[in-house]
C-alpha cells in the first residue's frame, strides 16, 4: 500500500510503500475488541473502597448486657446491621481487574488497527517533525495544514522529542506516543495517526522482529 508523504507545510513531497505485513492485515473486529477490553481493564485503577466492621472506628465494648434487657443481643455498634457500622460485601480497593492476553493476539490486533487506519485514509506520514522550541502555536500551525485538521490525532514519534511533546500536550484531542509503544486502545481513541517516516521503521523493527523471534 502506498501513502502520501507530507512536509510540515502540509504539501505532498513524496510517496512511500508501507510494509504489507503491518499495514495490509484483514480486520477481525472480535479480536480487536477483545484486546481493547483487556487493555482498558489493565489500566483500571480501583478507587471505591468501603470499610468492613474491623476497620470502622469504635465499637470496642458490648453496647448492653447479653441478657435481661429485653432487647436483641449485640456485640458491637459497628456491626454491619447498625447505622454507621461496617459494610458487607462493599467494593474493595484490593480487587484486581487485570486480564491477560497472548502477545501474538495483541500484535495481530495492533496490525489490524494500523491497516484500518491506512485503508481509511486516517494515516498521515510526515517527511519529518521537528520544532526549534517547545511552542504550542507552532504545533497548531503544522496540524492545521494537514488533512487531520480539527480532528483527534495521535502523533507517533520515533523517539522522545521534548519540543514536540511539550508543544502538543496542551492541544485538545491531540496526544503523543513513542512508536515502539503503540497499542490498540490508544489508536482507537484517536481518528488520525500522524507519524514521521522514521516511525515506520521503528514499528517494523519493534513488532516484526519480536514476531520473528517468537517463531
What features would you describe in this structure?
This protein is of the alpha/beta class. It folds into 2 domains: 2-44 and 101-214, Ribosomal protein L4/L1 (Ribosomal Protein L4, Chain: A); 48-96, no CATH class. The chain is 35% helix and 14% strand. A 6-stranded mixed sheet has the order 2-1-3-6-4-5. A hairpin with a 5-residue loop joins strand 1 (2-6) and strand 2. Helix 4 crosses helix 5 (162-168). The longest helix is centred in the last third of the chain and has 18 residues, at 197-214. The protein is elongated and about 95 Å long. The relative contact order is 0.18. The mean pLDDT is 93.
Overall 3D geometry? Answer: elongated
The whole-number mean of residue pLDDT values reads: 93
Biggest β-sheet: count, sense, barrel?
6 strands, mixed
Count of all domains? 2
Largest beta sheet: strand ordering: 2-1-3-6-4-5
| CATH level-3 fold name of the largest domain | Ribosomal Protein L4, Chain: A
Output the CATH class name of the largest domain. Answer: Alpha Beta
Secondary-structure element sequence?
EEHHHEHEHEHEH
Question: Counting H and I runs of at least 4 residues, what is the number of helices?
Answer: 7
User: In the CATH hierarchy, what is the superfamily of the largest domain?
Assistant: Ribosomal protein L4/L1
Give the second-level CATH assignment, the architecture of the largest domain.
3-Layer(aba) Sandwich
Residue share in helices? 25-40%
- Using the CA coordinates, give the radius of gyration: 27 Å
Q: Which residue ranges are poorly predicted, with pLDDT under 50 across at least 5 consecutive positions?
A: none
> What percentage of the residues does DSSP assign to strands (E)?
5-15%
Structural class: alpha/beta
Number of DSSP E strands: 6
Amino acid at each position: 500500500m502506498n501513502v502520501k508523504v507530507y512536509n510540515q507545510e502540509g504539501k505532498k513531497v513524496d510517496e512511500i510503500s508501507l510494509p504489507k505485513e503491518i499495514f495490509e492485515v484483514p480486520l477481525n473486529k472480535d479480536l480487536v475488541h477483545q484486546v481493547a477490553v483487556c487493555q482498558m481493564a489493565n489500566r483500571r485503577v480501583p478507587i471505591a473502597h468501603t470499610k468492613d466492621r474491623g476497620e470502622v472506628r469504635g465499637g470496642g465494648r458490648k453496647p448492653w448486657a447479653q441478657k435481661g434487657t429485653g432487647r436483641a443481643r449485640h456485640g458491637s455498634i459497628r456491626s454491619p446491621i447498625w447505622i454507621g457500622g461496617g459494610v458487607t460485601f462493599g467494593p474493595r480497593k484490593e480487587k484486581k481487574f487485570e486480564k491477560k492476553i497472548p502477545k501474538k493476539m495483541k500484535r495481530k490486533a495492533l496490525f489490524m488497527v494500523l491497516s484500518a487506519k491506512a485503508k481509511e485514509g486516517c494515516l498521515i506520514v510526515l517527511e519529518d517533525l521537528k520544532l526549534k522550541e517547545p511552542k504550542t502555536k507552532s504545533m497548531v500551525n503544522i496540524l492545521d495544514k494537514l488533512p487531520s485538521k480539527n480532528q483527534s490525532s495521535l502523533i507517533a514519534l520515533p523517539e522522545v522529542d521534548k519540543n514536540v511533546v511539550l508543544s502538543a500536550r496542551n492541544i485538545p484531542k491531540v496526544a503523543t506516543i513513542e512508536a515502539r509503544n503503540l497499542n490498540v486502545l490508544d489508536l482507537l481513541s484517536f481518528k488520525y495517526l500522524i507519524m514521521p517516516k522514521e516511525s515506520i521503521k521503528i514499528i517494523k523493527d519493534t513488532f516484526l522482529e519480536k514476531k520473528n523471534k517468537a517463531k
